[in-house]
Description:
Blueprint: H1 2-15, E1 19-20, H2 21-36, H3 38-47, H4 52-81, H5 83-106, H6 112-119, H7 123-126, H8 132-151, E2 154-155, H9 159-179, H10 184-189, H11 191-197, H12 201-216, E3 228-229, E4 235-242, E5 269-275, H13 281-289, H14 301-308, E6 311-316, E7 328-330, H15 332-338, H16 354-359, E8 365-371, H17 398-403, H18 405-431, E9 437-444, E10 449-450, E11 456-457, E12 471-478, E13 503-504, H19 507-515, E14 518-519
Parallel strand pairs: 1-2, 4-8, 4-9, 5-13, 6-7, 6-8
Antiparallel strand pairs: 3-14, 5-12, 9-12, 10-11
Amino acid sequence: MNKLLCKLSCIKNKIVRPISLFAFSCIVSIGTLLLFNIPFFNYVAHNTNADSGGKIFLIVSLVVIMLVFNFMMTYLAMFLMRIAGRILLAILSFINATAVYFITTYNVIIDETTVGNVFNTRYSEASGFFSWGLWLFIFAFGILPGLWCLLQPIVWDKAKKMGVYCGCSFAIALILALANINQTLWIGQHDTELGGLLQPWSYVVNSLRLASFKHSKQAEEIKLPDGSFTDNKKTAVVLIIGESARKANFQLYGYSRENNPLLSKQKGLKAFLATSCATYTTAGVKAILEPVNSSDLYELLPNYAFRTGVDVVWRTTNWGEPPIHIEEYHTDNDLSKLYPDADRAYDGLLLAGLRERITSSTKDKVLIVLHSSTSHGPKYADKYPKEFEKYKPVAKNVEEGEKNLDMLVNAYDNTILYTDYLLDSIINTLRSLTDWNCAMLYVSDHGESLGENKMFMHGVPMKLAPKVQYEIPFIVWTTTNFRNYKPISSQQDAPAGELPAVIEQHYVFHSVLNLLSIDSPAYNAAYDIFEKKQQSVSQ
């Protein structure tokens, strides 16, 4: 038995021989470049404005800089942390492979926005991306290299060698960086793309930036000045926050398919040209609810209305909204318990008992916010009941849709058809409240890419985003003689009393204050889609 163990040990030592820390660091550095950074160099090759000689010199310089820098960081991590360093490299290998898969498959950039979206995504939504292709990619390019980092025997160097190797690496990187100083302007112009494609630094740096931002931002909202009601007429406003709905695929905005058959027949409906302030949910929802487009956190519409005395209800099948401070906040789990007969699989759940909830209110002013998830990918076909599958065949998910864009668009257009049904149902419910002034506003948090320029879903930084990711539907309906709309100017710089040709999400805040007859120093008439109607409180 001992002889067998000795033989096995000899075989293992021959197959897995110890290597120096220098060699180990070189292999990790080369592997990081070849396995995880081809998209980075592909971007450089296709976007640099240098001539052929300059392009070659830039690419060679970047290759050498990446090799020596990754070598230096690997060497330091292993020398200083030993076992922890191995574990760190294995984790980075796994995340690198995942990042590269999404970069190559969905044409995303791993910037601060993308990292924030990852932390704000629930498992139920993230699982939509799971596929055999993803797992095989991660196994081949993430898990196997990670296991090698964990198991490969290493001969450890002395501290003196560490100083020499790391010092030389830094010097080489610095010399090459200075030799390419003329590329500073180009790098500055493309810093988002370059930083978002560079692994592992893209998600490491942006995770640190995100953590720093969340730590430094104010813990509480900036309170707005107190408001008061100018009348006591019974008023109900329903605000629907759409998810990933793009204007380009709405019949109301000229889309060739009849996927708004019900809304197109609704009298008194108004569809505004609008853009989102961001291309991801957290920022888009914040922009819809805030008085100004700002990086600061002001008191949001439902919180402010609730503090003013409005009966506010928030219902959601989604997530990612800023802090909501009201008494009646209901998730899909809460709603399924309140309305056990409603189908919790779809956004129709948000409408359960809507009429009764409004009419049972003990207050004159009611604001109901419905945060939907109807058009969120990657599984558009799971977002609507099968009776709304008008356009066929459909792609089960975005990955399948990459191979057949028509099937992907079919599934997405069916979500818009279902949205049409939901909004029409809300309007009909509000129209039945003959003793109430009522309004419905539907605004999407952002748009969506469906394969244009090989882009899918959303989240591209605004300065790079295609129009389909920020041109959104902004649809409004009110009861007759409730409020008059302002005229729309043909120019973006509209004169006083008119709306610009294209409005933004923060018009919602001020328009809803007008609808609820809230007089407030926070109100800005310039960002109200309605004409201001002065009224007195009845005695």
